[in-house]
Automatic annotation (TrEMBL):
GO molecular function (one): L-glutamate N-acetyltransferase activity
GO cellular component terms attached to this protein's record: mitochondrial matrix
Residues under site feature: Cleavage: 243-244
Taxonomic superkingdom: Eukaryota
Function: Catalyzes two activities which are involved in the cyclic version of arginine biosynthesis: the synthesis of acetylglutamate from glutamate and acetyl-CoA, and of ornithine by transacetylation between acetylornithine and glutamate.
Subcellular location: Mitochondrion matrix
NCBIfam families, per database record: ArgJ, PRK05388.1
Descriptive protein name: Arginine biosynthesis bifunctional protein ArgJ, mitochondrial
Oligomer status and interactors: Heterodimer of an alpha and a beta chain.
Organism in which the protein naturally occurs: Collybia nuda
Chief subcellular location: mitochondrion
Amino acid sequence: MSGSRVMLKRLASTVTIKPTPSKAHHHGPLPSSSFPSGYLLTGLHAGVKKVAGVPDLGVIVSTSEHPTAAAACFTRNAFKAAPVLVSEEILKDNRGRARAIVVNSGCANAVTGRQGMDDAWAMVKETDALLPPSMHKFKHETLVMSTGVIGQNLPISKIVTGIRSQAPNLSAETRTLDTDFSAWERAAKAFMTTDTFPKLRSRVFTINGVEYRMAGMDKGAGMIHPDMGPAGTSFPAVKQLHATLLGCILTDAAVSPRSLQTALTYAVDRSFNSISVDGDMSTNDTIVVLANGAAASTDGAQVKEIDEETDKAGYEIFKQELTDFAIDLAKLVVRDGEGATKFVTVTVKGAPTYKDAHAIASRISTSALVKTALYGEDANWGRILAATGSVPLTPSTPTSTPPIIDPSKVNVTFVPSDGTSSLPVLINGEPEKVDEVRAKEILSLEDFEIVVELGLSGDGEARYWTCDFSYEYVRINGDYRS
């Protein structure tokens, strides 16, 4: 018996372990009419995962006649996985254009040396080969993603065979890759590792009188604390290694590559970079957006691309739609956090800047002491304050003194999701006489919010979405490789 199982068995003899609630209700059929036009996709079992029939390989192709714009945000982890490095290179060489995505689950292809790079390129080249010659505008048209165990090589021959098996489905004469909900669902399932449900959403929106569609999928349940940015961005800190957040968003709007990247960077900062399950960043975190213009209006034969300089109003609408959609997808990851029983919004207000508010919300959301108290349904607001006060604020200029939090101006409130009254636990630095019964009622809900008001000059406000730490999280991660 593994160490984690022995520990949990001992715990079970002394405490009552709450069962992890089912998350299946977060997934259901979506109308096929809500999915963007001009995409073919599927998910299949290639043999990466040990269980037969479980999807572990996804292929997504844009079939639009218009060149497809592509943008991505990648992990800033120093140990960037091979598929991250390969996709970064392709986006750079193509100046923000790509037409296909291939993803495998079950193996991250991270920290795998030269062989890992060769395998990632093999996935790209095999998927490129599926595309008709008329679609080839660049040397490589495919972005690649992988997720799963770190430090192991891909069973690349099985993956190559799986990709090649889709060739008949993409030929002009016998094209059979689906475009309806079932195809999107299969592709979403191919992303999954310890996820308990496929994470898939879609929406319809209008810009300049033209109706567009957007759909996307992501995965992630453990090792979730992304810090992603455009290709080539990094920082030197070495993070702990484990699973991954992956996602792709597809739209039939036409957006210029530069504006697609700036919109995605903005959206990711306020969505995927604002979630945490366990505070650990992956080597593989990747979010990709494709915009193929299949539903765009034309000026004669020329498709009009939404651009931040030539159509600022249209761009702002698209940026907000993308941000709201990314938030919806990001929240699904937290809801499916490994062993999670709570979905908690942490809101920080009254900070000097958004950056300061975001940093404090992040610190609260990653505090093991806060997260274990959430699992125990204990309104231990002192832990929230300790996390809040540990974050240094940013000076307004390089030579100025950084702001300091005044404890006498800080408020902390627990806000239930059921519409009943909130529970202040700290007002202007003075502790309230907490109704512990009421506190237990709020913290026993699946969803609630923690609001921290700093009372500093400035309108910096940020939200983070997090979950609790449970015994089940220890079990899953203690046995992850087996």
